[in-house]
Design brief:
478 residues; alpha/beta; Rossmann fold; Four Helix Bundle (Hemerythrin (Met), subunit A); 3 domains; four-stranded parallel β-sheet; four-stranded antiparallel β-sheet; 44% helix; binds adenosine monophosphate; binds zinc ion
Length: 478
Amino acid sequence: MLRFFNTLTRKQEEFHPLEEGKVRMYICGPTVWNFAHIGNFRTFVFGDILRRYLKFKGYEVTHVFNLTDIDDRIINEAAKKGVTIDEFTAPYITAFWEDFDALGMERPEVTPRATHHIAEMIDIIQKLIDNGKAYESDGSIYYRIAAFPEYGKLSKIKFEGNIAGGSERIDTDKYEKEDARDFALWKLVSEDEEPGWDAPFGRGRPGWHIECSAMSMKYLGETFDIHAGGQDLQFPHHENEIAQSEGATGKLFAKYWIHSEFLKIDDVTMSKSKGNFFTFRDLREQGYSALAIRYLLLSVPTRKQLNFTFEGLQGAESTVERLRNFRQLVREGGNPSRSEGVDIEGRDEDKLPTGRVSASFALEKFEAAMDDDFNTAAALAAVHDMVREVNTAVAERGLTAEERDAVLDAIAKFDAVLGIFGPEESADLDAEIEALVEERQAARRDRNFARSDEIRDLLAEKGIILEDTKEGVRWKRK
Ligand code: AMP
Ligand code: ZN
């Protein structure tokens, strides 16, 4: 039974979706004003693990992941460059999806952009004006927090007295508000100013929070199962989403809330404003693989902080390489000295030592770890324990056919969730490599060393390393 920590109740809860067998979830996506950094990707990789694990558990998942393509930073940067906001965000949106795919994340079912959902935002704001939860001041529209007594139920922040300016996280607009906590739903924009949209309550542009209320409810309904995002979004962003959505519908907005802890660097939160960040691209340019970056980002459970170090990344690099070679070894029949497959059927089973490799036990441990608040660290430990056990068996005696199949099956199941072994190389590709290795052997027998070297180079280009051993030639992936 899957259990996880729900920020709304501050408790570990059993997961029961609203509709049996189906999960509807929303994760706040990036603001596309720059390249996303690996802190952002820590939160997004968790989102990917969450969706993959729910699928692993048999649920049908509808995952909505938005792009915030309008905010003050985007407007300012576009104006500085003299381009429209669409022209300004386009290359960052392309870059974001490139990074997203490279990190092995599955594309969510719906990836809406804020600027394509202005009409839905206007609808919610109109409802809030009509039911007294929003008001106009100097042409802008504000949420009236005094009209939503449950305000604070997610973040558990107690609001006492007037706290304007008391916290930098509270929106201190220049306009007159009834209460310092009130936040902008719609910001006045003059006739000749861009970007701006016409609404029954005047030309303007949306506040940030209303975007997510509009995009989540449009695709998931007024009440849905899971809402997630980084820890910093809990307040005010998610608190305001609840106020807007529940204020408009009178219904529960999201049943479960999950907040990811920060990626830190030298114990300081990685952020654009602090300048202490690495983008995914920075690390790729330094030669680190996407797989290792993904491994590092998911290696610590999401509700614990993760401190980024290059040592850690280097460690992740060796680990994913070991895992890939391990899968290759098992596929080859669990015998490290042969590349052409092993006749495991013919082995005398009676002579095998006791202590059979148990892939099903590893899978049980993996699932128990993930069921426990998505404990990815313990889930990885289950994978590594199995690898160790299998390696020992291989060194002592090789694997039975049954064991080999069970281990390969377990690897595929782990990887449906974790995605750390990387894409499965196709059997066709293996056959092609085998054929080249054979051809090189034949060339060497014919003393055609030019051809043999040529094939070695060709294989190297495909990332294949050849090793000459007593038993013959063995190949592995770099
Ligand atoms: P933004 O593009 O600023 O809207 O942020 C996108 C997501 O990244 C949000 O869910 C943030 O909470 C999350 N985020 C920002 N910085 C970090 C960090 N250092 N570690 C983990 N998540 C972060
Ligand atoms: Zn959001």
